[in-house]
Amino acid sequence: MGFEMLEMSVHFFAEEVVKEWNEFILRSRNGTFMHLMDFMSYHRHRYQDFSTVIRKGNEIIAVFPANRVGDTVFSHAGLTYGGLIYGFEQRLSDVRDAMIALVEFYQQRNISKIYYKPVPHIFQKYPSEDDLHVLFSLGARLVRRDLSSVIKFRNRPQMSKKRLSGVKKAFRAGLEMKEGDFLSDFHELLSSVLVRHNATPVHSLQEMRLLQSRFPDNIKLAVARREDRLLAGTWLFKFGDVLHTQYLACSEEGRNLGALDFVISEIIDRSAPEFQFMSFGSSSGRDGQSINEGLVFQKEGFGARTIVLDHYELDISDIAALARSAEKDT
User: Fold this and answer.
1) Does residue 289 lie in a domain region?
2) Distance separating alpha carbons of residues 107 and 222, to the nearest angstrom
3) Per-residue pLDDT tens digits for 227-257
């Protein structure tokens, strides 16, 4: 019996496929709620969207959240990570074909480079590094490697004496950990902490409220309070079996009372039965070349250890021959 080879096609994202896009993300093996259009659309005004949908016949087999700056496509400049999102049914050959089709699609639209931030393995629902091998075969360069700290709840190291000392201080001071609508106070505290480093929060208070209202099951705020004062807190993102601290902030009074140690300790104790990992995010700068040793030391004190967050650059200005070679080798 013969069979029909279905043609692969690439199309720009359009509003009429929002439902299809979101449904595909939810059943993918490496997509997260950050790749849903309800999340990506909150800052759409900041970027020239260049996201694509890859189909085999009529069926979506991959999507690529992306934006364009000049002759470079980023996946995605407005997200911690992006890359090609694909499903459980897609095998290596499908991912390779999708990547080659994507490269040729962008090349035909005067794009010369793709900047690629893959989903780290701890956030994947199932092993999904097919795209990394395809990138390697196409000659992509590793251009940045950030350092991130992660707790694996099972068999995690004990909390350090310094962190435990902070927790004990907080208990003696009568601090309470609460989840609730403290975003205004938290954003004010976060802004005051970041201004000392000549920085501002990536998200405005309005954006934080919007995202938390759209994803109430995925985004939470946990804070330490003493009487009516917010002393420390973290804005938490829940990705399946991974809990991620998107922001951490602590006041001067909170530092003296171990408030942040207390919040993190409480979250660890409450989250261990439900989650496999807790991610503290990056502690590096200058494209991964510098490390905030004090911040790493603090996170390691809770039992976290290092993973890396890689960024790749793929020059597609003369990729057609290489793509044909990759197809020929299969």
Assistant:
1) no
2) 45
3) 889 999 999 999 999 999 999 999 999 999 9
CA atoms within 13 Å, Cβ hemisphere of 157:
14
Same domain for 112 and 172?
Answer: no
Count: domains in the chain: 2
Tokens describing residue 53: 């949908």
Q: For residues 249 and 240, what is the distance between their CA atoms, to the nearest angstrom?
A: 24
Q: Where are the beta strands (DSSP E) in the chain?
A: 8-12, 48-49, 52-56, 59-64, 67-69, 72-75, 85-86, 113-116, 141-152, 176-179, 219-226, 229-239, 242-250, 277-282, 284-285, 290-291, 305-315
| Cα–Cα dist 310/288, whole Å | 9
Say which residue the tokens 């639209």 belong to.
Answer: 109
- Clarify whether residues 137 and 19 are in a common domain: yes
Query: What is the helix, strand, coil percentage profile of the chain, to 5?
Result: 35, 30, 35
Helix (H, G, I), strand (E, B) or coil at 245: strand
Edge-to-edge strand list for the sheet holding 305-315: 48-49, 67-69, 72-75, 113-116, 305-315, 141-152, 277-282, 242-250, 229-239, 219-226, 176-179
Task: Clarify whether residues 26 and 138 are in a common domain.
Answer: yes
Whether residues 201 and 257 fall in one domain? yes
Residue 263 lies in a domain: yes
In a domain, 286, yes or no: no
Examine residue 32 and state whether it is found in any structural domain, yes or no. yes
137 and 230 housed in the same domain:
no
What's this model's pTM, rounded to 2 decimal places? 0.91
* Helices 130-137 & 92-107 angle (0-180, nearest 10): 50
- Dist. CA 34–CA 316, nearest whole Å: 27
Residue 237: which domain range? 155-275
Q: Residues 225, 119: one domain?
A: no
Using CA atoms, how far apart are residues 194 and 32, in angstroms rounded to an integer? 27
Q: Please choose, from the candidates 138, 55, 43, the residue with its C-alpha nearest in 3D space to the C-alpha of residue 96.
A: 138
Q: Residue 174 belongs to a domain with what CATH number?
A: 3.40.630.30
Confidence of residue 327 (pLDDT cuts 50, 70, 90): low
193: tokens are: 């902490």
- Say what percent of the chain tops pLDDT 70: 95
